[in-house]
Amino acid sequence: EAQVTQNPRYLITVTGKKLTVTCSQNMNHEYMSWYRQDPGLGLRQIYYSMNVEATDKGDVPEGYKVSRKEKRNFPLILESPSPNQTSLYFCASSRAGGGQPQHFGDGTRLSIL
Amino acid sequence: LAKTTQPISMDSYEGQEVNITCSHNNIATNDYITWYQQFPSQGPRFIIQGYKTKVTNEVASLFIPADRKSSTLSLPRVSLSDTAVYYCLVGFGSGNTPLVFGKGTRLSVIA
Q1: Whole-number Å distance between alpha carbons of A71 and A53
Q2: What is the rounded CA–CA span in Å between residue A24 and residue A5?
Q3: What is the C-alpha separation between B34 and B103, in angstroms, rounded?
Q4: CA torsion, points A51, B39, B76, B89, in degrees to nearest 10?
Q5: Quick check: bond before A75 cis, omega within 30?
Q6: Do A97 and B93 touch (CB under 8 A)?
Q7: pLDDT tens digit string along A3-16?
Q8: Is the CB of A43 less than 8 angstroms away from the CB of B97?
Q9: Binary contact (B92, A58; C-beta < 8 A)
Q10: A90, A98, A103 ranked by CB distance to B91: nearest
Q11: What pLDDT was estimated at residue B99?
Q12: A15-35 pLDDT, tens per residue?
């Protein structure tokens, strides 16, 4: 089954404690992306990757890091999380480019205390 | 970045046709228009995509006028299960540019 898998689905942690949210896709997609979703603000893109070793900033990249060492994986790293990063996060992938239909994961709800 | 504007919310009765319009005045020549549906606590799901004129699939139709500065998602005969948030996204198919989703339209279907 074609899918984008995020882990963990839920996480409560404290300010400053480094965390990583993993994202993996099994569709051999070139493009992967991370979004955050906050009430009243819709989906905002954090980072995206056109291919292995190619990552670029989206609309709200501050406080986040990503890496793309393998085509299937695109982890989101919060080196020093802060409460304003409490949000619902989605990973997505598409065959090539964000303008093509994207497949989204089920989301990761992060709470930073 | 191509920005989009949609109504914040809409209500409809079951069985009616619903049309949701998205404005994208600064759409670029290479941009496609894509619509997604999102249910609570789930990731967005692709509905339909188009470049110009009309596109139809098993769940929706997409109408795009000649100037491409707007698009209309049409949902025929909605049911309660169509209650969701609908997002319009404009972007280049294989382009290397950031994407900007709008704030979406919350559709409530009433029995």
Answers
A1: 9
A2: 5
A3: 14
A4: -30
A5: no
A6: yes
A7: 999 999 999 999 99
A8: no
A9: no
A10: A98
A11: 80
A12: 999 999 999 999 999 999 999
**Chain B stretch 6-35, residues whose beta carbon is closer than 8 A to a beta carbon of chain A:** 31-32, 34
Q: Under the phi-then-psi rule, with left for phi > 0, alpha for psi from -120 to 50, and beta for the rest, what region is A79?
A: alpha
Pairwise CA distance, residues A32 & A61, whole Å = 15
Q: What b/e string do you get for A11-45 counting C-beta neighbours within 10 Å, with b at 16 or more?
A: eeeeeeeebebebbbeeebbbbbbbbbeeeebbbb
Output the pLDDT for position A28.
95
Q: Please, which residues have CB within 8 angstroms of residue A57's CB and are 6 or more apart in sequence? A: A47, B98
Q: What are the structure tokens assigned to B51, written together? A: 């470049």
Interface-testing mutation among A102, A103, A106, A109, with chain B (most B C-beta atoms within 10 A)? A102
B45 and A45 within 8 Å at the Cβ level: the answer is no
* Measured CA distances, A43 to A40, A53, B10 (Å): 9, 24, 19
Q: pLDDT digit string (tens) for B51-104?
A: 998 999 999 999 999 999 999 999 999 999 999 999 999 887 666 777 878 789
- Measured distance CA(A93)–CA(B109) in Å, rounded: 30
Report which DSSP code applies to A40.
Answer: T
| Cα separation of the two ends of chain B | 39
